[in-house]
Structure formats: C-alpha cells, structure tokens
Design brief:
α18 crosses α19 (442-452). The protein has a five-stranded parallel β-sheet, sandwiched between helices. The chain has a five-stranded parallel β-sheet with strand order 7-10-13-6-14. It has a two-stranded antiparallel ribbon with strand order 8-9. The termini are far apart. With 454 residues, the chain is of the alpha/beta class. 46% of the residues lie in helices and 14% in strands.
Length: 454
C-alpha cells in the first residue's frame, strides 16, 4: 500500500526501458510514480489525478530529435496545470531544446543519460517549491473568502431579503447548481456573480450567456464550440461558452427561453459534463458550475409541455427567488444612493443626494422595472441635475403613484412598455408566448425589453 504523503510523479517517455529504470529509481527514493508513453496518455493521466511534478521526455516520434511533441505538450500543460513543476529530459547535447523548454514553462532539465544524484536533487527541489506555491495559493484563496472583500456589493436591508441572503451564504461555497427566479431587473445576474465569487471557483472564469439571445442555428456553436469547416462560416475552430467556463461558473440567463428541441442537448452536458464541438465527434470533459435564471414559471412550463422536467431537476438543485423592488421598499433609498454615487463619479458631478420631493417620488413609484429601472432613473437624474441635489423633475418618472395611470394620459412609449409588462406577466415571463400575443418576433420583443429596462 502506497504512502499517501509520498510525492506523486508523472513520468512521460516513449521508451519502455527508460520508464522502468526511472520507476525503480524514483520508487526507491519514496516517490509514488505513474508512467506514460505518449503526450495523449500524459493528458489522460492528468485528468485522473493531481501530481506534485512531471518528468517529461521531449521526443516521441521514432527517429526524431526536434523535441516538437514535448514543446507542444508543455504549452498545453501551462494552460491545464500552470503550477505543476515540469522537468524535461533531453538528449545529450540538445541544449537548444532545453532552452526552448525553459522558455515555455519548464522549471529545469536533465540530459540523457541522466546523473541519478542530479536528477533526484532537481526533483526534490521542484516538488518542495511546487507544494509551497500551492500552499500559499490555497491560504490566499481561503483568506480571500474570509475577507469577503472580493464579493459584489449586495444592498439588501429589507426583511424580505434576509432569507435570500442566508440561502446565498449557505449555497455560495458549494458546487450545487442554482436556479435564480424573479422578475426582470431584480438583480439575478448580480446574485449569480456573488455565488461565483463566494465559491472556491472564484479565481476562474464567470461566463454569462443570454439564452434568449441565441438563435436556434447558433445555439450549439455558441455553447459547445465548433471546428473549422463545420458549417459555411466556420473559418476557424471556436471554443464554446462551457469550455470557457471550465473550472469556473457558467450563468445561463433566461433559461426558460430555450426551445424544447434544444433542451435535450443542454441536459446531456449537465448530466455528463461532456461536450462535443459542432463538426467533431471527440468528447471534451468540462467542470462548470451551472447557475441559471428565469422570469418564467418553469413549473408551469413543465406542466404545459414546453420545458423538460428532467432538465429543471438538473438546474434547480437550489432555487433562490428574488422579490420585486416594490416588495422590498426599505431598499429603495439605499439603492438609489448607491447608484447616485456611482453615476456622479462616472459623470464627474458633485451631488449630495435627493431633495424631499425627489425622495417622495422614489418611494411612491411602483418600479415595474425593479432595480434596473431605478438604476436608469438615477442615471438620468444625475445627468439632468443642475444643483447640489437631485430634484423630482430630474428623475423623469411618470405615473409615480402605485395606482395604475389612465392609458390616454400616457405617451406612446409608456403604453407600449405597459403592454409588454402585462403580456409578460400574463404568460409568466415566457418571452416566446408574450411576443406571439403582441404580434412581435421574439428578437423584436427582446430589443424592447432591453430598451425599456424590463
């Protein structure tokens, strides 16, 4: 039985006798050794376990001394395992290959035939340095999580937000898939960013995808990538969003808009973690945490046959529901002040706050567009303000009472905005059905939603 504390080494060489000699030598010095005979086998081994260091031969094709295969593998290793020390082995006299290998990220090199004492000294040094570096990075990550100074700012003083924040605290550090629900403009993407930043995945990528903005023809290419020549406009290989989020978090916004015919493709990735680029039959494994968001009532969509129940189960291991701004009115003033400071700094204006009349307008408005509408209103007010305080007229809000205004008293844009809101509410956020009822294409409705800040 191997010692669990023994350093783990991966040795890559295409000569069986060399592998056996190194295995015996390193085992005799207390190392746990795995051996492979090709770059492909080396990458497969790295997917199965972590190594303290790697001993890498530069040549694999018969009768070659260019070291090209070893150099190419070094570049791949730098992207996959940037902190794993790599010591390269070169043929005697191939100093140019050793120099190029060091330039590409190798920590040191030995010449064949190697000197046992020098080899063991180099490996011992690199293993210790690698372990020290990983310990330092782990401590920094832990301290960063404890400080929480890296987290997106959450302004939430309302009692309605207390259980939301408590749930975020519990699930943030986990790998659980999360479904965030709530009306448009309630801050779903900010919550997704907070969950990512509070997790061990924070140093890796956060990739946001607007699923409602993907056409059916580009769905697979955008999410999973494609290879050159897969279709007419595929001039080069393209990495998909899931690969970009490997090791990090992918945020699938407006998940309820994915057509039923494409939901099975998304489900397969969530079940297996394997993706295939369009035009390729080679599966690639990705490790992405999935956070999704929707305004739609997905339970209703499932009941009416427009959303797969098994996909919903995969998405909402945990569900976080964000209340509308009208239901957390204690947060209106703190949010408005936050936006005021941000936009005043951006536009280089000095503003002390809101006058009494402006404050009354803020508190009396229904905020159908939620936090996004408040942000836009405050930005406008900052631009329009001429004194030291924002006035009610600067906000440009019509119908500030929570009572519904008469249609004949509203301008055409406000009527259109109201009709869109009512249609979305009627169909529980289903953009496709709302667009059909309004006589618009789905893309046209999305443009209006973005334009009105809904």
């Amino acid at each position: 039985m191997s010692d669990p504390s023994a350093p783990h080494l991966l040795v890559a060489d295409d000569q069986p006798d060399v592998l056996e000699a190194l295995r015996l030598l390193l085992k005799g010095h207390g190392y746990d050794v795995d051996t492979v005979a090709s770059p492909a086998a080396a990458l497969a081994a790295l997917e199965r376990r972590d190594y303290d260091a790697m001993l890498l031969d530069m040549n694999y094709a018969r009768d070659t001394t260019s070291g090209r295969e070893g150099l190419d593998l070094l570049l791949t290793l730098q992207s996959l395992e940037p902190n794993m020390p790599v010591v390269v082995m070169t043929a005697w006299g191939s100093i140019d290959n050793a120099v190029e290998a060091m330039r590409r990220g190798a920590r040191d090199y030995v010449e064949k035939p190697w000197d046992n004492a020098r080899l063991m000294s180099i490996l011992g040094t690199q293993v210790e340095l690698g372990r020290a570096l990983r310990r330092a990075q782990r401590l920094e990550s832990e301290n960063r999580l404890l400080r929480r100074d890296h987290l997106p700012k959450m302004i939430a003083e309302s009692p309605k937000m207390k259980p939301v924040l408590q749930l975020m605290e519990r699930v943030g550090p986990s790998d659980a898939n999360v479904l965030i629900t709530g009306e448009h403009g309630t801050g779903k993407e900010l919550v997704a960013q907070w969950l990512h930043a509070s997790s061990p995945r924070a140093p890796r990528s956060f990739i946001a995808v607007n699923m409602g903005g993907l056409s059916e023809g580009l769905f697979e290419s955008e999410l999973f990538g494609h290879v050159k020549g897969a279709f007419t406009d595929a001039k080069t290989d393209r990495v998909g969003r899931f690969e970009l989020a490997d090791g990090g978090t992918i945020f699938l916004d407006e998940i309820g808009t994915v057509p039923l015919a494409l939901q099975s493709k998304l489900l397969r990735v969530l079940q297996t973690g394997d993706i295939e680029r369009v035009g390729s039959s080679k599966a690639r494994h990705v490790d992405s945490r999935v956070v999704s968001a929707t305004y739609a009532n997905l339970q209703l969509e499932v009941a009416e046959g427009r959303f797969r129940e098994d996909l919903l189960f995969r998405l909402n291991t945990i569900e976080i529901h964000l209340p509308a701004l009208r239901d957390r009115r204690e947060d209106i003033v703190p949010l408005a002040m936050h936006f005021l400071r941000r936009h005043a700094s951006r536009y280089r204006k000095t503003l002390a706050g809101f006058d009494a009349a402006a404050m009354q307008v803020l508190l009396g408005h229904a905020w159908p567009g939620n936090i996004r509408e408040l942000d836009h209103a405050v930005e406008r007010a900052v631009l329009m303000a001429q004194g030291e305080q924002v006035r009610a007229a600067d906000l440009g809000l019509r119908g500030t009472s929570t009572a519904a205004p008469r249609l004949e008293d509203l301008p055409l844009e406000d009527v259109e905005k109201m009709l869109i809101q009512k249609s979305l509410a009627r169909y529980d956020g289903n953009v496709s059905r709302a667009a059909q009822a309004l006589g618009l294409s789905r893309s046209a409705l999305y443009r209006r939603i973005a334009n009105y800040g809904l």
